[in-house]
Amino acid sequence: MRDLLLRLLLNTLALWIVTQLYGGIYFASGSGLGDYLLAGLIFGLANALLKPVLLLFTLPINVLTLGLFTFVINAVILLIVAGLTPLNVRGFGEALIGAILLSIISFGLNLLIGPSNRHRAR
Questions:
Q1: DSSP code of 90?
Q2: Is 104 helix (H, G, I), strand (E, B) or coil?
Q3: Does the CA dihedral 84-9-19-48 come out positive or negative?
């Protein structure tokens, strides 16, 4: 449970950082912490449930592009999250840039906190 909450907070923090750094992805004015947490939760669920299915269906093109098509999948997931939450994305190109930034920031945040409890040696 603690791991799940930590991942929710990391997703939320990564979304907040991206919205502060990049103008193509933003929250409507007046959005508060609850909106960020909701977007982080939906983003985490979409990554856990939708992303594997989308990656499976696009496996041939992903292999041909040496994995770069994964950024397109991440952009689609970001657009889906924007459709379900107060998050706004200006277009697909902005979603693609935002997905790349989000991947980099999430990677950095995951490096900072270290491996989860499930992956630690016992």
A1: -
A2: helix
A3: negative
